[in-house]
Amino acid sequence: MLPTTLSTLQDVQDLYHWFAEMRATQPVWRDESSGCWHVFRYDDVLQVSTDNKCFSSKRPSALMRRPLLNRAFSRDSLIAMDPPQHRQYRNLVSPSFTPRALEPLSGRIRTIVQELLDHVRPNGHMDLIPDLAYPLPTIVIAEMLGVPTSDRPTFKRWADALLSRQLSDAELFNAEEIPVTPAFQQANLVMEEMSTYFEQKLEERRRQPQDDLLSELLAAEVEGTRLTQDELLSFCVLLLLAGHVTTTNLLSQAIRCFDEHPDVLKQLCEQPELMSGAIEEVLRYAAPVWRLTRVTTSEVALSGVTIPADAVVFAWLSSANRDDTQFSNPERFDITRSPNRHIAFGHGIHFCVGAPLARLETAIALPMMLEQLPQLRVDHSTPLEVLNSRVLFGFKQLPVRFSAT
Fold it and tell me: How many CA atoms does the CB half-sphere of 340 hold within 13 Å?
């Protein structure tokens, strides 16, 4: 039975136990309550992620029949496109997120991290999420887009309203009518706020172009045609939200993993050259994204099970990354693991466009934290709260302590 609530690390551990059981007994499983299909093994998740002919990224028709959801998700989104449209639109933004294109940002990222650390070092404690893991990537993506970093509190409110919202799969895909809860109404209001905000920023760039992503999107063309207003807004919303969430979760999961494995933390302090492998192991062991959603375009078989056409399929990245047919001793956190072919960022044409940025920000921030925050450790005086989400694996807060300097 699919766990219904995630609120503590014990709930997370229970979910990983369920993954292992399902990989062994029901690797392709239909949830009767929602009618959705779930895929758990590495090879099957890889196929769902890669085979865009059989597994479409377009939004399920059941989702779009819900009036409120249709409002909230009405604009074309890069993550909900199939080829050839996906390739044409991805090519508009992907050049800005290659490792080579991002390298000039390294100095600015170090400056931001240093400013954030200088603010907390004298205190001997901080909440990692609001004090570093959230502001760092938000400042970076805001500066890339060309929107004021002073609007960070507004961005955070939007992200919380849209990404923390939790409806069951049955409510989303099988219910006759989705209940109009206050949280759901708030999410729709947030979408309207975001649209109005970016409409104003885009209009400013039309009048006075700048050296930023907003201006680049306004000038971009697909097959000789400029992007529509809805397409521009979709890009802006996606880049703002996705541009910070992955790094926020990756940084917090890294500190949590290091705290649970003090021998690893000691090893990293003595051998900082191991940090790159450590980041990849955090991605495998505690993937920031739980699962992907696809829709079958025709009848298809996985692990001997036939899935019908037009079925909603969830490919569990976090389960695939613990599959013992791909990873030796997968429950062990091993920063020297090689090879480490995790799929935390997805695979194929929808491989996370922001992955190089998340890796760069994390690779700069973690060594600086370990060097400047002696005896860094998670404060367990209160239980850690996990985001109650089937999409993102993160924390609501992550209090840490260290020796004040």
Answer: 20
Q: At what angle do helices 355-372 and 229-260 cross, to 10 degrees?
A: 40
Question: pLDDT digits over 94-145, tens only?
Answer: 888 889 989 999 999 999 999 999 999 999 999 999 999 999 999 999 999 9
pLDDT of residue 225: 78
Pick from 313, 309, 321, 319: nearest CA to 292? 313
Model confidence, pTM:
0.91
